[in-house]
User: Fold these one by one.
Assistant:
Number 1:
Amino acid sequence: MADSPLQINALIVDAADPERLAAFWSVLLGRPVAGRMGPYVWLQRENGLGLGFQRTDTPKSGKNRMHFDIASPNPPAEQARVEALGGRWLEEYDSGGFLVMADPEGNEFCIIPDGPFELDDEGRADYLG
């Protein structure tokens, strides 16, 4: 049997309330809820990648070790939409030049331009002005 590279099948987000979190991300990403099984709520697969939310009793603590970057033609306009859906802007990350938001359970994610942008030698972005 030949060695073949592994593929990422799905990203799973731990959630105190997977229904609420799935509803937020469903609207934000335009991916309908596709299924429920046990402690999981799944969004519709896109480009072969699944996104699921798993119920957990352990609360989130500290900064995520992995986060999503969401591409948009107009990141500042998306900030208002995220906030209207129950997310929030994380001002403490403003000095990095990225638009860092949190979903309703506090999971961090960035809204980045869907086109190229520059980073300085420290990794700070320039797309917010």
Number 2:
Amino acid sequence: MAEQANPTNAASKKIRQLSEDEKIHIKEAFDLLDTDKDGFIDYYEMKAATRALGLEAKKAQILSIMRTYDPPHGNKIGYEDFYYIISDKMAKRNPLDELKYAFTLFTADTNSNKISLKNLQEVNQRTGSGLTDDEMQSMIEEFDTDLDGLIDEAEFMEIMTKSENWA
């Protein structure tokens, strides 16, 4: 007989180690999306949470999770089950895929597949990083190996995977 998930005992399941920041982000996502503060999230909230945490999940996958982990609550799941599911998915992520996804966040609003000074300015403004235009231009110049004034995906990957940066 195949072993089934025990949705009522998620806390006792072995969860892979995540950074403290990742744990905090999981809790924040759950709390933010539990809009009625009943301690459970529904399908739509689960879908929004996976996206907010940088995870992609198809409708069928989320519906399956909802049915598997908390059928007694009308296809809602509590925090312990949510944490178990999300932390496991986060632990299994491929770091290079994550970097490619991060690259797309810089270029999402453009037709170009390259990061420009304007892209950096928009991210700087959204995140409140406080970088000056000169600092951002210097970043581009330092890492722009093909000298086109932009950072393409290969250059971005090189920046992010250099051993001194990848720690």
Number 3:
Amino acid sequence: MTLSIDFIDETDQLTDEQIAQIQAILNIAANREEVEGGSEVSVTFVSNDRIREINRDYRHKDQPTDVISFALEELGEDEIEIVGTDIPRILGDIIISVERAKEQAEEYNHSFSRELGFLALHGFLHLLGYDHIEKEDETEMVQRQKEILDEYGLTRD
């Protein structure tokens, strides 16, 4: 079972290998989480300025961040769930700041590719409903991230 992933690199900085790595990691996560094959997600790579705008406009935080997820399956007020259709499951959008990923890779002393993989996975798990506001939820999310990254072979070292 594979995801349908739409990659958009607004920065023109990512390599085909980095995109393939993210695709593989997200597919491992989708399989582990039993996400239906053909489900759709988009991953967009942006500048700090662009993610700051998005963070300000949608989260009311006027600062750049590393990753933002927009889950399309979360129902808003006055929205109803569509069930019983043959359309693919549309999970949502993941937006990653390439600049922040580079900064954090240096800060955490690991590769840029590892940081990109981590951020994409982190955003993907948010789309599936994982969160880290409460300590118990954070522990579960961190453990899940570690398991998936380890399975892919992308460790912190």
Number 4:
Amino acid sequence: IASCNCARRRAQLQDAMLDGHFHFGGKKIAIAAEPDQLFQLATFFAGLGSEIAAAVTTTDRSKILEKVPAVSVQIGDLGDLESLAVGADLLVTHSHGRQASERLRIPLMRIGFPVFDRLGSQHKLAILYQGTRDMIFEVASIFQANQHAPTPEALDPLRNREISR
């Protein structure tokens, strides 16, 4: 029975990845978290086709930081995240990131500690098949809720092209 549950959960995760990956491709993600969680989240987003636009953590004392799939990892705080996150599609950090999210007009995915402004956050699973599946759905739903209608220029990049004679 345990192997049956495992196979079912694996299939559910694969379905979630198939359904969700369209929403992740090319998105710019700004993350502030402790080193281990920064690595886990950055690897999750990069694995689904997103770019880690900003990676901020609290200490340089962890070797896992060398493996974070980002151009650089900034040792800093939420002020650093806010300055690095301009142009990002999603902020990923704890509840104190809500002010930066509002100022930058970028959606916030609350994760880490503390999450004090959402009920039940301490019960959310973010690991293994089920937790990864649920995180894919959560992030894809955030992206869906914050879609912007494409402009004519975005749909036709050749529209205003100058022709040389």
